[in-house]
Amino acid sequence: MQHGSRSAIAGLAGLSALVALPAAWLTGCSSDMMAGMGSEVETAPPHAQSSVQPPGPGNAGAKSNALVVTPNQQDYLDALGAAGVTPSSELSALSIGSYVCQARAAGQPDQAVWDFVAPLVRNDLRGAEESDGARAESPSADDTDAATADYIRIATERLCQ
Q1: Cross-referenced InterPro entries, in alphabetical order (predicted)?
Q2: Is residue 103 part of a domain?
Q3: Which one, 27, 63, 70, 80, has least CB within 10 Å?
């Protein structure tokens, strides 16, 4: 019986390592690059009674949960728009850019960066179509390739500094 317990513990240790590695990798962002990505969002417990009112026209003193971006991040978002890339959201575009920067910082070769980012871009393109009310079809390979190239180039030039 002890042999079975040891392999179960070894299996859990391996699983823990697999879960911890991506988390450790994702925390490699510079504080400058990630500034504003959710730092202004505050949440309350679901049934909390509070005197704080949600942001809106009648409550000018309440904090907004709108995304706050740095000038560097805004430059990146503006460059994506100028290149014709329409992300499903600013947060999604910043996340993809962050992945590019993390891969670059880790010294990943261009093909590895592409292989990791392309599925994220494809999903984002699909999400952008859904938010426009269009039927969620898979974007064409040409559209995905063009957007992936733009994301990688623009993130490398404007966000990964």
Answers
A1: DUF732
A2: yes
A3: 27
Task: Report whether 95 contacts 159 (CB < 8 A).
Answer: no
> CA quadruple 14, 17, 18, 19: dihedral positive or negative?
positive
The dihedral built from the CA positions of residue 48, 51, 54 and 55, taken in this order, carries a sign that is negative
Q: Rounded to an integer, what distance in angstroms lies between the CA atom of residue 81 and that of residue 14?
A: 42
Q: pLDDT of 40-55, one tens digit each?
A: 444 444 444 444 445 5
pLDDT in tens, 126-146: 887 666 555 556 788 999 999
Tally the domains of the chain.
1
Full residue range of the structural domain in which residue 152 is found: 69-161
DSSP 59: B
136 three-state secondary structure: coil
Residue 111 located in a structural domain: yes
